[in-house]
Amino acid sequence: MVEPCRRLVASSRFDAAMLVVILLNALVLGAETFDEVERGAGDLLSALDKAFLAIFVAELLLRLTAARWSPRAFFSNGWNTFDFIVVAASFVPGLNASLLRIARLLRIVRVVRFLPDLRVLVAAVAGSVPGVASLAVGTALLVYVYGMIGWLIFDAHDPDNFGNVAQAMLTMFILLTLENLPTYLETGQALSNWTVLFFVSYVLLASFLVFNLFIGIVLNSMEQARAAEFQSQRQAEREAAAATDSPEDDLVVAVEDRIDELREALDALAGELADRQAAQKG
Fold first, then answer.
1. Do residue 95 and residue 198 come from a single domain?
2. Which of 186, 202, 222 is where one domain is finished?
3. CATH code for position 49
């Protein structure tokens, strides 16, 4: 019973079927927002929602069976944990209509699990949080410093935008998007041409440098997430091959592992060659 369930939940057809169910569930939730549809087919929509919930419960049971009904093995997978919370939330007693609708709405988020590229994107965003948080702190300090300088320069000249440090910081924060920059430059030049240096330096540091660093952090997280997703898929292939008695599956996995080793060796040689060329040019 365990092996058939494991092969089923690991198959692409099962993922495609669950993706269709999630999308149909989303359509039903959307249809419920129309009063005309709700009045004419409210009972049908309610029955469909219960049917979708039953399918999600059955999916969880299949995944639990594939994990040999081991809570540790089941919840070691983050997506399994998320699925369990989302489905279990629908059974929490005492939820009002709004909270129950939110719980049902969370089922749609499960679509991430069945779309590899979207799963990589979510993992990249989550992985970039520490770097982005550090960048946010640095950006806040930069906005504060320039806000204080802007208050010193424009307090009397432009009190609407620089009347106090809080308002000045808000102005500088809006300037991160370069919104109304020509207007601020014109206002500053009415006071002194030296104010151009204030705005230009801020734009170069905050808008260009900070945003480029942000993009770099996200791209790096994307590469790491793609590598982690690839390793996860390869591990799943190894486990699936080990679970069967066919030597062909083991041979395929061994060949793929060898190809990965050769690819890593080529990448290492390419990096070494690039370093030598850079050293010769230096």
1. no
2. 222
3. 1.20.120.350
- Residues 75, 84 contacting (CB under 8 angstroms): yes
Do 87 and 145 lie in one domain? The reply is no
- Same-domain check for residues 101 and 121: no
Shared domain check, 89 and 10:
yes
Angle at 231 between CA 228 and CA 233, to 5 degrees: 110
Parent domain of 97? 2-114
Tell me: do 20 and 97 sit in the same domain. Answer: yes
161 burial (CB, 10 Å; 0-12 / 13-18 / 19+) is buried
Residue range 237-258, pLDDT digits in tens: 666 666 666 666 667 667 777 7
pLDDT in tens, 43-101: 998 899 899 999 999 999 999 998 888 888 888 888 889 889 988 888 888 777 778 78
List the CATH number of the domain containing 191: 1.10.287.70
pLDDT at 141: 92
